[in-house]
Amino acid sequence: MPFIFSQAGIASLMAQAHQTIPSPLRAATVETLIGLLAATGMRVGEAIRLNNSDVDWTEGLVVVRASKFGKSREVPLRASTVEALATYARRRDRSDLAHKASSFFVSIVGTRLIYADVRVTFRKLVDTAGIGPGSSVCPRIHDLRHSFAVHTLVDWYRNGHDVQIPAAAGHLPGPS
Question: What angle do CA 66, 104, 142 make, to 5 degrees?
């Protein structure tokens, strides 16, 4: 059973990164990663595998390459998400470490993020932010994907869209 993060809970996690992570670059990396996962529903592995060349600034999308079952796809981004990624990229590029890797998200030593480290950091942020202590399920980073899906469907219902019509038929809007 997934834990569904509220929008306030997601904002709290992102803010908590800056309050508890001593490295400004790492705090910005974690904050931006959480924001991207929440805004797109991407899998965490897809996000940490992104390269700089996978972000299409002109079209406002990211390209996820060889993901689950070897499939690739384009993920459209809201303007606010593009701006958040651009702000992070500028901060990352000002660091001396950014030029060591082609990865979009970088560790404090300039290498690609490691999933196990991201998971541990996320768990600490959830605990410190006090998210989910009374819940019957433990919040996990993958639950940001489930939360995105739930929030998107709720938005469609609120906006009067018929969610029974398959999205593949082109009848449903993208995330609002």
Answer: 60
